[in-house]
């Protein structure tokens, strides 16, 4: 059975993303090889660029990783999976994948777009998440648990935040720019199209960007075609940016994402579990208003962000002998506002602010034979204060505290609470190119509406099912994350750059929430979300990136472990003893090489994604799962970006899984067949 489980695979911790030459310097997302010398002459030290950015964003130590899309022919989940600190689990299909950081997933990892938390959570085991297309975001940042004081509920596993493109990222000159890109791939006979326009008149700039893609049933390396793994994805981004004055700016943004198709793909599991096929239609909108006031004095740098999100997820079973997928039609509306200010006095940088969020949710399907998610509501409130002190030019200490409060209602059922979360970190720039850091930070997760109030009957195979029972007495989960790391960042010459990152973490989670056994109703087991005492996750990562005019190297390796600290009984009435290992992939890595060919404005790229044999859940707990074998997947690509008269053109052709190796993605409970050899191509023009 596919269950709503909270601990899933991870690839942890590094500050270097899986990128090539155009990602050498984080201060210039559009860097080309011939720009390296210019960047080198103006570059700031590691402490200037990273510590100050961390201070302004509310982080006590640098983020795990930050990247821009390597190419836009691949989907966002593909790009994320190559980033340090992030793992994508749940198979190769867009709608059924989740983001994991540090072994924690789903509700425990914030997924933000332009700093706005996407609060849409999973319901009844549906593992869904809409992510912006690589065409629509210019960077994505991954942070460790509790590392940023401005984040509220959901931050016990970390945060992934997408920064969408602005008009100035597209404009050529000051007036007008148009662009179009088309691509496709063979393994899903898929196609994607992007077109848009950016313009500026006076102090106002505009952007409209539209993306469409289609993927059909996926082909695996053993020659089979997986049914119910097709989808059509449409996204659109519109922005208006206004420079009100030298000290004031206003930005209005509207993002729409819709994914329609069939899911889930088949799973391979000796325990006999299968996934019932269903049609889905998932639509999400986000409207954001950003106001900035910076009068160029040390006392005021005010930022106000207001947003409104709508999420609608509808799923209907496909008529097959195994038609026991839960029908749902969930509407999720979220409104939020956040205001913060930065004050710099006497070597202190004070960041402080308040925020409030209101969430309403409902499910149009209700009855005795389906899972019910009745009308419910949640309010979240927060206030935060952070002090960052530059003790010397080399040493910075940052400490912060956040007050969190929440209240949830569903008819006569109520749940509320409040708590403080704290953080402290030290950053030591002990040599010109070396940065060491250590931090203790806390994150919390208010009980989600689905965890509190989901009830009803879920049939997971013919004649077999569970009764889900609400639990309005859930306590918030709290993460206590300890992390330590070191980073080397140096320019040997104006054209040679190297970074080395080593990072380790230990995360203890209190009041951990998962499905547990709640009794029997006749022959049917009753299950509900409950708090267990604690769980512990820990791991390390090593990463290296080297860039030069003749070779580009990027590699990272991570290991993650986990264990429950308290015994508990699963919803299937299996006893899990204290100290039992958590089902987390033990090790995963990436190796990328690029070879620039400057005379023809091209780069040849090759990469290797690999995983070692995975840690398995004990057979006595979740059934006889097959061996989760490791794998190594090779890819090759040719990238052409001409200069001179053809500047603005771009072309990319490549192949994933070059050797057509058959392998399976493992999420700790199930195994999903992965995509076989996939040939892809893309061509674009920007004017």
TrEMBL record:
What are its GO cellular component terms? cell outer membrane
- List, alphabetically, the InterPro entries matched: Beta-barrel_TonB (IPR000531), Beta-barrel_TonB_sf (IPR036942), Plug_dom (IPR012910), Plug_dom_sf (IPR037066), TonB-dep_rcpt-like (IPR039426)
Signal peptide limits: 1-21
UniProt membrane topology term: Multi-pass membrane protein
Q: Where in the cell is it found?
A: Cell outer membrane
- Per the record's keyword annotation, is Transmembrane included, yes or no? yes
Q: Where is the TonB-dependent receptor-like beta-barrel domain?
A: 272-658
Q: Which molecular-function annotations from GO does this UniProt entry contain?
A: siderophore uptake transmembrane transporter activity
Which parts of the sequence belong to the TonB-dependent receptor plug domain? 80-159
Query: Which terms are listed as keywords in the entry?
Result: Cell outer membrane, Membrane, Receptor, Signal, TonB box, Transmembrane, Transmembrane beta strand, Transport
Q: What's a single GO BP term from this record? A: siderophore transmembrane transport
Q: Write out the similarity annotation.
A: Belongs to the TonB-dependent receptor family.
Protein name (record): TonB-dependent receptor
């Amino acid at each position: 059975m596919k269950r709503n489980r909270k601990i899933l695979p991870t690839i942890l911790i590094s500050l270097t993303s899986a990128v090539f030459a155009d990602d050498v310097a984080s201060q210039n997302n559009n860097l080309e090889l011939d720009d390296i010398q210019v960047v080198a002459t103006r570059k700031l030290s590691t402490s200037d660029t990273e510590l100050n950015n961390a201070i302004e964003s509310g982080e006590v130590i640098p983020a795990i990783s930050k990247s821009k899309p390597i190419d836009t022919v691949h989907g966002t989940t593909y790009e994320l999976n190559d980033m340090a600190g992030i793992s994508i689990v749940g198979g190769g299909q867009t709608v059924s994948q989740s983001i994991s950081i540090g072994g924690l997933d789903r509700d425990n990892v914030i997924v933000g777009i332009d700093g706005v938390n996407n609060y849409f959570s999973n319901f009844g085991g549906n593992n869904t998440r809409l992510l912006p297309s690589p065409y629509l975001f210019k960077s994505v940042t991954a942070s460790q648990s509790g590392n940023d004081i401005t984040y509220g509920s959901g931050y016990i596993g970390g945060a992934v935040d997408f920064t969408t493109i602005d008009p100035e990222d597209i404009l050529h000159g000051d007036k007008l720019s148009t662009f179009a890109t088309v691509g496709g791939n063979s393994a899903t006979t898929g196609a994607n199209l992007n077109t848009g326009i950016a313009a500026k008149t006076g102090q106002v700039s505009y952007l409209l960007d539209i993306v469409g893609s289609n993927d059909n049933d996926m082909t695996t390396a053993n020659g089979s075609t997986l049914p119910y793994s097709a989808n059509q994805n449409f996204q659109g981004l519109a922005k208006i940016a206004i420079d009100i004055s030298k000290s004031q700016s206003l930005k209005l943004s509207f993002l729409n994402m819709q994914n329609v198709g069939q899911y889930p793909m088949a799973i391979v599991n000796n325990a006999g579990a299968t996934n019932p096929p269903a049609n889905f239609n998932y639509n999400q909108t986000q409207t954001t208003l950003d106001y900035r006031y910076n009068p160029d004095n040390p006392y005021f740098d005010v930022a106000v962000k207001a947003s409104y999100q709508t999420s609608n997820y509808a799923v209907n079973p496909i008529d097959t002998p195994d038609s026991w997928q839960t029908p749902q039609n969930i509407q999720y509306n979220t409104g939020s506002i956040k205001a913060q200010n930065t004050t710099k006095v006497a070597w202190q940088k004070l960041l402080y602010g308040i925020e409030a969020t209101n969430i309403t949710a409902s499910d149009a399907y209700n009855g005795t034979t389906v899972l019910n998610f009745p009308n419910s509501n949640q309010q979240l409130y927060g206030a935060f204060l952070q002090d960052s002190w530059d003790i010397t030019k080399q040493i910075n200490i940052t400490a912060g505290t956040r007050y969190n409060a929440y209240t949830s209602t569903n008819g006569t059922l109520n749940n509320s609470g409040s708590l403080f979360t704290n953080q402290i970190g030290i950053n030591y720039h002990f040599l010109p190119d070396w940065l060491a850091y250590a931090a203790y930070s806390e994150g919390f997760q208010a009980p989600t509406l689905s965890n509190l109030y989901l009830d009803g009957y879920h049939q997971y195979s013919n004649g077999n099912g569970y009764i889900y029972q609400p639990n309005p007495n859930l306590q918030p989960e709290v993460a206590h994350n300890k992390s330590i790391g070191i980073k080397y960042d140096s320019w040997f010459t104006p054209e040679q750059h190297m970074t080395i990152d080593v990072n380790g973490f230990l995360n203890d989670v209190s009041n951990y929430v998962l499905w547990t056994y709640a009794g029997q109703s006749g022959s049917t087991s009753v299950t509900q979300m409950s708090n267990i005492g604690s769980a512990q996750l820990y791991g390390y990562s090593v990463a290296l990136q080297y860039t030069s005019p003749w070779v580009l190297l990027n590699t990272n390796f991570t290991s993650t472990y986990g264990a429950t600290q308290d015994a508990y009984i699963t919803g299937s009435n299996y006893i899990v003893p204290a100290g039992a290992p958590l089902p987390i992939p033990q090790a995963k890595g990436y190796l990328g090489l690029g070879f620039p060919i400057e005379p023809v404005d091209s780069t040849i790229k090759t990469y290797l994604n690999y995983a070692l044999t995975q840690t398995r859940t004990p057979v006595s707990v979740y059934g006889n799962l097959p061996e989760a074998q490791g794998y190594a997947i090779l890819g090759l690509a040719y990238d052409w970006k001409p200069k001179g008269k053809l500047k603005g053109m771009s072309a990319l052709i490549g192949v994933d899984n070059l050797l057509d190796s058959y392998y399976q993605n493992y999420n700790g409970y199930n195994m999903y067949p992965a995509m076989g050899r996939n040939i892809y191509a893309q061509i674009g023009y920007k004017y």
